[in-house]
Amino acid sequence: MNRLESENLRLRAWNREDAPMLFQYASNVELASLAGWMPHHSVSQSKLVIENTFTNDHTWAIELLGENRLIGCICLYMGEESNIGLLSNEVEVGIWIAPEYAKRGYGSEALKTLIQWCQTNTQFRAIYADCRSKSDPSYAMLLGCGFSSTGRINANSRIKPYNGEPVSVMKRNLREWILFLCHGNICRSTMAEFIMKDILRKKSLFQKYHIESAAVSSEEIGNPIYPPAARCLELHGVAYDAQRVARRVTKTDYMLYDSIICMDRSNLMLLRRIIENDPDGKVHLMMQFSGENRDVADPWYTGDFEATYRDVSRACLNMIENK
Question: So which residues are the catalytic ones?
Fold first, then answer.
């Protein structure tokens, strides 16, 4: 398990020796209500919770540096572990701090440390959290860590409503997901994927984005990048994955990605047959980002991969610089 450290805290794996301290906190009825669990009745029960619930690669004990004292817990819920209703590229965070260490900024410090770890070591698009009400101290903590209200209510939350107010769902974006599309996913969209990744690395922005590409047809599924496209990238010093193979875009991709960029109008037409509509305005034509009302010509037919490189590079650069 990854051990994380900040100025005042260490986030580490739980162990059985933490059971007495966990029981001291978990037997507190008020804390149990805040954290969404039933109060613990014995050290043995706390030990079982550590062994059966806390022992994994996404639940950390929060320890105060210097004192080596356990003061709380922070964890990530993925998939069916969350009751918010997450997509496969989203995650929920849960956190509690012992009452005697509350209101000292430790919750915010632990949460910011975990968010930074998620941005560096995962590809999650967004992180969610429950909040009981605006009068709950956790609301201000979440705002301070970059979360905002989704307007959604979580009727299935682990935590109980506060003063009759429903539990709301907060969200913080971790990175922007962009999907490039062309007909077969072996020339233009693949070039766009690796050109954009190259630009992001050079601008030290790679951790803020997740970039992929796909096809609107099934003709080239399973095939690698087209050799002339690969040679063009090599000539310009752009790294690419020779093992990557073409895949077809799916309806689910519309939910997963923030932006879907088509190389030409034909791609756009075929995409709409798959996703049916674009209620969130995610779909764009590539050359719109260069202020041009035209397609990126298909080098499979033109043979001009340099022209494709110029068009895609300019549009990708404009896309990032105009954020």
Answer: 182, 188, 298
